[in-house]
Amino acid sequence: MSNKQDNELILAVTANDYEKVKKLKDKKKVKSAHLLSFDQMGHTPISIALKNNQENILEILLDLYKQTKTDINTKDRSGYSVLHVAAGADERLLVRVLQFETINVDVQNEDRNTPLHYFCQKYRSPNIQEPFQLFMKKNVDINAQNKNGETPLHKAIFNNSVRLMLVDMLLKNGANVNIVNSNQESPLHYAVHLGREDLVSVLLKAGANVDIIGGFKDKITPYDLAMSKGNKEMASRIKKYKDLFIWLQENGIEAYKDNFVKEEMFMDELGEINEKILDKMGITATGNRLRILKVTAPYREQFKNKTMPKKESIIFQDDDDDSSTTSTPDINGLRDSLHALKHVSDIVIIKNDDLEYTEKLGAGSSGKVYKGLYNGKEVAIKVLKSMTEAKEIEEFKKEFQIMSAIRSKYVVHFYGAVLEPKLCMVMENCSRGSLYHVMNSDKYDIGWDKTFRFAIEMVKGIECLHKWEPPIFHRDLKSLNLLVNEKWEIKVCDFGLSRFNTGSNLQTLVQMRGTFAYCGPEVYHGQQFSAKSDVYSIAMILWELVTRCINARYERPFSEFKNLQHDFQIIIQTAKKNLRPTIPPTCPPSLVELIKTCWDHEPDKRPNCSETLKRLYEIEAEYKANASLWDKAIVPLPPHSE
């Protein structure tokens, strides 16, 4: 074998010359020694391909490893195996290496770190399920310790992108939460050092020992460490677990520690324990149930003297301050086109490394949504699916344009977009979910005060869009697209179908889009979408709110018409037969009139947002002057049967 042949393969891979690498393979010029040769940095050809995210070249090299029967677990000059390098590469490349039949998932480098250590420390994508399951399928040692005694769980604590998701997955797959490093520090010590209460809670629920004494200099418990850092809230949380564990041990029921922790039955909740709670906790043994009921009896006596509200009270804060799956192609071109967008003064492109993904919230046709952190703030991160079509890129740019333009306390705040390795939109996280989900929960008592507050803030949000220059039409307004934050404030969101009202958008504004139950008849008839079309949608949401208030349970628009099973049937009936949802018979006349005016068949007869808002304030004043009379209109219906 000649040095020239070594250099040929390394030079071709370094230059990302796919055709050259393929030619060397086809001519059978590549031997095992070539695959294991090093460049000047000590990297093998496959390490170079992984570091440069060269997926097509990686496929050729993996085939060559198989054909030449070369050991893929051979380390490079720095002591790293192929899988060590892949652990920090693009997710597709990592998955491909993990799928290689003879890959060793437990191979150690000179510091005794396994590839799983590196995966937990370096992996950045929120799509962790597939690679993690491949590690598990190959029976990885999930509790392997490196030279410093750290396990993959220790390493995951300091992953800046997906630490919570990794920690959760490790714990669910058998990671030992109480293994300590060479300084006797457990993962709980690491989480306290980091100041992350969310991590501390996850580890405590998994059975983290709060009495482990460790540290490089001062040997202290996690509780003392939290106190030394001035984090009293975190220390209080740790103490809550410790007090529970001591009580369980004193009463001989420590075997049920996990049951108590899972349901968060701490000392101040012991008085709530009864037969139903024990069922929920999964405690079935008769003897232990009787014992738990006996030792919690004194707490139940105290509990009886407390007044427990049936439903969570919604407390509003008045504030009138109006301040406010693959890499996409041609990232530079997309970045330039975003900066060239009209009507936008502030373009924010966020680096993916500045985000931390903490929890998956959901998935839809356009992608997945995660809760995360950006600059210390809790955010929602919408990770869009692969966009390879020009039409999809244009849709992304339009939503980006709308969200970048709007700044209002009644519209969900947009922080910016990530362009690579995946397209993401980073926005304000509204922890209580959508207005639809709030109305659909029997946990909340939504009376007239809340109904008016929700309605007024919704209309203010849409009014803001309509008064923008140029005006913006939402085009997909529904209760699912109104978010509720921790302070119970309404935020308009989801501008995927929204458009500026400009000459260039006239054709788009006559296309039938949105959820048909909330669409005005003019949309069905092919007329141009207008601000009054959004007002029709407002009427539907007003109906939902008023019906939820009066009936004390949520009703879906048109649900009383059992023959209408599909959205398209609804819009045909609304457009051709002038069908509308049934307003509750006890609804006050002023609200009936407003709703009917807002969903009038003729757009010109509907009020604009400013007029709707003025009328809402007037009706709210009417309610406040006659609260007892209005409250009589509330006639709760029995809950829906499951």
Model description:
The protein is α+β, with helices and mostly antiparallel strands and 642 residues long. The protein has 4 domains: 3-236, Ankyrin repeat-containing domain (Serine Threonine Protein Phosphatase 5, Tetratricopeptide repeat, Alpha Horseshoe), CATH 1.25.40.20; 261-304, no CATH class; 331-428, 2-Layer Sandwich (Phosphorylase Kinase, domain 1), CATH 3.30.200; 435-631, Transferase(Phosphotransferase), domain 1, CATH 1.10.510. The protein is built from 29 helices and 9 strands. Strands 1-2-3-5-4 form a 5-stranded antiparallel beta sheet. It is flat. The protein starts with a helix and ends in an 11-residue tail after the last helix.
Spell out the key features of this protein.
single chain; 642 residues; alpha+beta; Serine Threonine Protein Phosphatase 5, Tetratricopeptide repeat; Phosphorylase Kinase, domain 1; 4 domains; 29 helices; 44% helix; flat
